[in-house]
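lol forgot to send this yesterday, sorry. struct tokens for the thing we talked abt
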């Protein structure tokens, strides 16, 4: 019965929550459709996604104490905000179609997809994490990796479904899709909210017994926290810089015809990295070792593509083409693994008390990286090299995408140094 409860009370609700909110990464599937429907440039609408990631991190940082105190309240807030934000986005997309170029429509999408959905994302992301670690005490990494893998796998699962809906719903399919999905995801998240529960034997300490708050706990090891925060931030920045450009990179190396399939494969690596790296870390004496592995693999893969100029080679050399694909797979896996190991690494250093609040504060790194990662990559691509037609109707800039790698390899090296010298060994015995 206890094993059954682990799945019914922790793993299944975590997957229901994370597989719903993880669809925020499907933005690239329909962002161009939104831009055309409301009469704005794709660049203008892209800020909705950046705001969503920003408010995800910031809501997690500021609402971590709410999650700590009551996972039922926080998971309900997540379901309501995520579904309401999606439905509101659908409304303003419809309104923008009726009033082309309306600034109200654009601002409405920013508020609904960015701010309201962002709150749902942050609280929904945090709510099941501590519960999973409590149920799977001996396999914390595997448990959190399973849930966070759901966040990563959501894109691979939902993208083809969204494409079918866009193709079959006819005129106005883009806003109709949002309305339908808002209902579907609310039901999924509400069921997750009803099922989610901590083990019967666990009792949150009374406030007078709890001692130090999250900030005070962090102050007990400030250098370690700064190191974890910086590793997390830099890994996300590098990941977003390449993942945001991966579809065009794939087209640069001559595989545009199967770009959709390959982006689904990279999404699988993203999800697999979340589960695989966290489960692997459970077997390590020091969980920080997995970050060293992630950064070394990322440096090696990036360095090989830099040396071979694999992107600018444009697929002429099949080996170089394979190296570029390996880079995208490694970066996606490391990006996912970086996420799934953060809560368990924090618990190893700071214990389980206040872990939701401490994890939430750490997720502020995600918020800032959401505003910098893809935007910095876009800036480099727009200012280095030249765009030209690849002969298949695609405007590509191989030199620009190749130049992004010079930034990411430096950041990966800095991340490795931080992992080696700032994040000290943990005993994995914190209570």
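and heres what i got for the seq, position by position
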């Amino acid at each position: 019965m206890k094993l059954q409860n682990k799945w019914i009370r922790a793993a299944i609700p975590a997957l229901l929550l994370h597989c719903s909110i993880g669809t925020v990464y499907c933005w690239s599937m329909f962002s161009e459709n939104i831009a055309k429907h409301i009469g704005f440039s794709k660049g203008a609408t892209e800020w909705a996604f950046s705001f969503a990631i920003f408010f995800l991190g910031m809501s997690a940082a500021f609402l971590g104490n709410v999650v700590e105190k009551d996972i039922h309240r926080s998971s309900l807030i997540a379901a309501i905000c995520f579904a309401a934000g999606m439905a509101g986005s659908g409304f303003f997309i419809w309104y923008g179609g009726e009033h082309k170029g309306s600034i109200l429509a654009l601002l409405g999408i920013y508020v609904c997809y960015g701010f309201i959905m962002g709150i749902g994302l942050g609280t929904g992301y945090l709510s099941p994490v501590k519960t999973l670690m409590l149920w799977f005490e001996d396999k914390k990494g595997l448990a959190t990796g399973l849930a966070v893998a759901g966040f990563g796998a959501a894109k691979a699962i939902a993208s083809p479904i969204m494409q079918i809906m866009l193709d079959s719903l006819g005129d106005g399919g883009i806003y109709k899709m949002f309305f339908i999905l808002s209902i579907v995801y609310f039901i999924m998240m509400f069921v997750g909210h009803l099922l989610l529960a901590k083990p019967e034997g666990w009792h949150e300490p009374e406030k007078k017994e709890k001692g130090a708050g999250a900030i005070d706990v962090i102050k007990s090891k400030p250098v370690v926290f700064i190191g974890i925060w910086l590793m997390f931030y830099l890994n996300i920045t590098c990941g977003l810089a390449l993942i945001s450009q991966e579809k065009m990179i794939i087209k640069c190396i001559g595989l545009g015809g199967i770009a959709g399939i390959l982006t689904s494969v990279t999404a699988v690596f993203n999800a697999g990295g979340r589960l695989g790296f966290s489960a692997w870390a459970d077997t390590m004496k020091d969980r920080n070792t997995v970050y060293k592995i992630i950064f070394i693999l990322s440096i090696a893969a990036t360095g090989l593509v830099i040396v071979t100029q694999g992107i600018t080679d444009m697929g002429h050399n099949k080996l170089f083409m394979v190296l570029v694909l390996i880079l995208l797979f490694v970066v996606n896996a490391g990006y996912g693994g970086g996420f799934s190991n953060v809560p368990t690494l924090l618990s190893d250093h700071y214990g389980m008390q206040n872990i939701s609040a401490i994890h939430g504060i750490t997720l502020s790194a995600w918020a800032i990286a959401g505003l910098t990662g893809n935007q910095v990559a876009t800036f480099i691509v727009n200012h280095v090299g030249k765009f030209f037609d690849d002969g298949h109707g695609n405007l590509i800039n191989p030199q620009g995408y190749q130049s992004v790698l010079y930034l990411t390899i430096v950041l990966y090296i800095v991340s490795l140094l931080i992992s080696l010298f700032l994040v000290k060994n943990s005993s994995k015995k914190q209570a």
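The longest strand covers residues 388-389. anyway ping me if u want another try
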